[in-house]
Amino acid sequence: MAMENSDTAVPHRGLITVSIMLATIMQVLDTTIANVALPTMTGDLGASQDTITWVLTSYIVAAAIMTPVTGWLSDRIGRRELFLVSIVGFTVSSMACGLAWNLESMVLFRVTQGLFGAAIVPLSQTFLLDINPKERHGSAMAMWGAGIMVGPIIGPTLGGWLTETLDWRWVFFINLPVGIVAFLGCTAYLPRIAKRLRGFDFFGFAMLSLGVGALQLMLDRGGEVDWFSAVEIWIELGLSITGFWIFAVHLLTGNETFIDPAIFRDRNFVTGLVFIFIVGIILLASLALLPPMLSRLFGHSTIRTGLVMAPRGVGTMISMILVGRLVRMVDARMLVVAGLALTAWSLYDMTGFSPQMDDRLIIVSGIIQGLGLGLVFVPLSTVAFATLEPRFRTDAASLFSLVRNIGSSIGISIVTVMLTRNMQVNHAELSAFINPFNPALRAISPGAASGDPTALSQIDQLVNAQALMISYINDFKLMMIVTLCAIPLALLLRKPSAAPAAPAAAHMD
């Protein structure tokens, strides 16, 4: 019987959803939860400030390479079986990360963790679409989107609390109880899906892996080696372009490629990929900017930073709950436009940040942005798959996750580069006014105007703070412009009802 044709076709739908979401949140949390623990890991693992970042890079690259092959693996060994293996492998790898004794062992275990965790998010999206009838896809994607979007927000806070209260190793140990419960729930209730044998396109996979892996390495390592002044970045850029180009040609001309090119004929899905790329840029780029800003300019501790950013997650949760119901009654395209407008509004508010303000504007803009991104994410996840044949779902979900992650990496790299470069430019421009002939300087600090070293040091700290704040504001302006430019893309989406119903191809044994 087809899994999506009847509301009673799948028993224990609620328990299946809880088990799937536990695994999803566990995997998504690990993309950000370890970030705040890196300084503590450095000494324990015998690493330097430059090499400890491989703890993050190894995980990101491994997950990016394995994500596109999720569809083939699920067809080959079974979707249920792959999900269970992924949960077990991810949980065991997490425990191994917590027991790591040096940097080499940690990087090895993080690679393993990324390889096993890559399939969890796309498979969870596929399962939620399969076990729910089409009229409930909006609610299902609201539940899935809440885990995907709230996870990165609470990750740094939870990681900081665990590191300060217990030990950095608990950042990984915390996955054990979650993984066990998720595995037991999925083992007991997850339905079996009929396997679909297809050959493995090794050449296509190798070229896509080369392109994705080299791109992720370039984006993650660029800031450390000063981007294109380093030969390493040029090599990685060349490898990435080569891999993507050969893969695109192979996809168009080859036979039995591991991603069926017919998937790109669906306009909603292709437009959804563009949108989720933009959402990835905005979501994690802003999350990457705010914690260091609150720490460097406002002097907030890790815990307080988490508390200030928590309302953003609350806004996302509220939005997800509301939009799960609204998507059945309101044109999804209007919801996407409204969400992008709210997101742009929040970014506009963020351009008014000042080192002298309190936390109120940060909290309010965070809530508005959480509401906006929630309004975009759920309808987008629903409409992107609404006109797609069910047999393409797993491949489509893996591409959806891959593009979102690439967007996040590119967004973080762009705002980080701009922050550093603009900081230098702004500091130089502001410093030009620090001279003994400036009446404003003589009025504020006569000692600095007369050349007193202590007073000049204090003025330099003020200049640094202002230059850094202006740089953050420039980043927020850029993200606001990107968000506004994305709004017209909503016109390319089609109403799900306008497309013919696709034949159901996912069956339970």
Automatic annotation (TrEMBL):
Residues 16-498 form the Major facilitator superfamily (MFS) profile domain. It comes from Aquibium oceanicum. It is found in: Cell membrane. One of its GO terms (cellular component) is plasma membrane. Belongs to the major facilitator superfamily. EmrB family. The keyword rRNA-binding does not apply. The chain crosses the membrane at residues 12-34, 54-73, 82-101, 107-129, 141-162, 168-190, 202-219, 231-252, 273-294, 306-323, 330-348, 360-387, 399-419, 476-493. The lineage of its organism: Bacteria, Pseudomonadati, Pseudomonadota, Alphaproteobacteria, Hyphomicrobiales. SUPFAM superfamilies: MFS general substrate transporter (SSF103473). It comes from the Bacteria. InterPro entries: EmrB-like, MFS, MFS_dom, MFS_trans_sf, Sugar_transporter_CS. GO terms for molecular function: transmembrane transporter activity. This is EmrB/QacA family drug resistance transporter. Keywords: Cell membrane, Membrane, Transmembrane, Transmembrane helix, Transport. The keyword Amino-acid biosynthesis does not apply. PROSITE patterns: MFS, SUGAR_TRANSPORT_1. It is a multi-pass membrane protein.
